[in-house]
Amino acid sequence: xxxxxxxSYALHALMYMTRHLSxxxxxxxxxxxxxxxxxxxxxxxxxxxxxxxxVELSKPKGKGYNFVNPPDQTNLLQLFxxxxxxxxxKDCFMKHCQCGGTPENxxxxxxxxxxxxxxxxxxxxxxxxxxxxxxxxxRFNELPDG
Length: 146
Fold this sequence. Notes:
The chain is mainly α. It is built from six helices and two strands, in the order H-H-H-E-E-H-H-H.
């Protein structure tokens, strides 16, 4: 299993916001420069995050972004569901084999189902605050645009 690049970018942008909570609202240019994420990519990501109710554009418009709820109330599974399309742990990872297997009749699917339930529980227990303060700060190697 591998997360989309957009999911990694979203997580890092939100961890940046969490670590700089007292300086919010923050604009995409600041996040882009700090994290090494192209600003145009962040713009598309933040539209998804707004629609999901994770962040909001501050008032007056154009000043930057704030969290809708405190970051300790948003967990990683919520974020991954938004960015990955809510199917991260729902299907068998061998969904392309068209075997029609279920966790009840396929040993491989049963093992996948059991392990992903544990992973989903761990991600549910892990808030943005937990992630931000227990993950090494680093930049992506992307050059910011704009």
